Known about the structure:
The structure holds two protein chains of two kinds.
Chain A: H1 12-27, E1 33-34, H2 48-57, E2 63-68, H3 75-88, E3 91-92, E4 101-105, E5 118-122, H4 136-144, H5 149-162, E6 173-175, E7 179-181, H6 191-194, E8 200-205, E9 210-214, E10 220-222, E11 250-254, E12 261-265, H7 268-280
Parallel strand pairs in A: 2-3, 2-4, 4-5, 5-8
Antiparallel strand pairs in A: 1-9, 6-7, 6-10, 8-9, 11-12
Chain B: H1 7-21, E1 27-28, H2 30-33, H3 44-53, E2 59-63, H4 67-78, E3 81-82, E4 90-93, H5 101-108, E5 122-126, E6 130-139, E7 147-151, H6 157-164, E8 173-177, E9 182-186, E10 191-194
Parallel strand pairs in B: 2-3, 2-4, 4-5, 5-8
Antiparallel strand pairs in B: 1-9, 6-7, 6-10, 8-9
Helix pairs in contact in B: 1-3, 5-6
Enzyme class (chain B): transferase
Keywords (chain B): Transferase
GO biological process, one term (chain B): organic phosphonate metabolic process
Amino acid sequence: MKIEYNFAFFDEGSKREIRRATLKAIAIPGYQVPFASREMPIARGWGTGGLQLTLSLVGKEDILKVIDQGSDESVNAVNIKKLIALTTGIVVTDETTEATIIQSRHRIPETPLQEDQILVLQVPIPEPLRYYEPSEYETKKLHAEHEYSGAWLMLFEQIVNYGAMSTGADHPVMVHSRYVMAPSPIPRFDNPKLNQNKALILLGAGREKKVYAVPPYTKVASLDFADYPFRVETFQDKCCRLCGAKDVFLDELLNDITGEALYQCNDTSYCLQRMNGISKE
Amino acid sequence: MKLDLVHDIQTAYRKTLASMSRPGLIKNLRDQADKVAMEIGCFNSTLVLALMLFDTEVTFKICSEHEAEMAKLINQLTYAKATELESADYILILHDSKPGDLEEAFQIARSGDLLDPHKGATLIIETDVVSNERNLTLKGPGIEKENYMDVTLNGQWVDWREEKNSEYPLGIDLIFTDREDNILCLPRTTQIIKQVVG
């Protein structure tokens, strides 16, 4: 039996709910707007928040790109793309510059985003204060009171323990000088891209039922201390083994037998584009 | 042609989203608004916004000469519930509203609380003309340097808004619609600077 789904899978009521929340999220940058998250045909924690945002946005003319940890072809990205393409009939692409909507898990593409693009980030834990405060009501109060000493203390403890801030990903940021926000588990390398970005960035957490946003040209500062400034991951003297790119986020691949470390671009579409460009020259 | 409640509303939403995320950016809903095939007491673009955002979860208030009829119509079309100014999620200030309505709406509209600032109301205000004339300068998130706007309204609305939104993140968000089906959004983060006539 072939089921005829509504355009973009959702019923219109669900889209309205997400759209109302999204407009409020843009009006209060970094603030987590609760919304009635729907059951999706993928498991919670696998990008349902991002998927719901994308489905509420998508129209017939859109071109969609979905990436998962920088890859266009990993299982999560492929399945989300399939679901959206099958229920909308829209074109999907790997090229960052071609896409009008980019849904991403854990990366912001290397190619700078443009004004007519929307970046949708999938968020597992939207609450930056959850690490030290398990109660949702309490964290809401902390946000209300602009009481973020816990977030600073978390970073301070890392410095005491390890001599540096040791957030691997999801390093908390201050948005528009008001809300501390979890930027989703993007590497620290991508945090500066949030600041004054040309594109609208929407973040969705399906399991936690929250939507939040960073409008274009909004000040986003990673939390740090005067004597311990925020630093991105460095790949000094290293470059991609495939395309030779420097100053991009590299994956480290270890050869089990020789123990040798190999580096290559995490953003596969960027890497491929560079290789195609190089081979044309 | 009839308004397509899936695709036309989606197109209108994306325009509204663009306008809300880039305050001062005027988007035109003519193509969608023209498909509204009924005689109503508000601009077609205002009705498109209502159809985009309203359902049983939503409460609204209409400020108009024909408030009762309009409230009934919007309720029948969207199932949203009419309520009073202080509790409405959306306040529609139509072009035939009384002169005092706008000020009253700015004063009484719900601005949310610190736990739930998203409960601040959204005002949808009908004006004759929305433009990018350099009467008011806009700054804030969504704006690279500065944007400009003008609306044909009693100029005091800027002060009323500033007063209402003085305790960010509390406040109200505005959507202006005009006779040409243009829309312009002002989220609470936008700062408005009046041009000084020199």
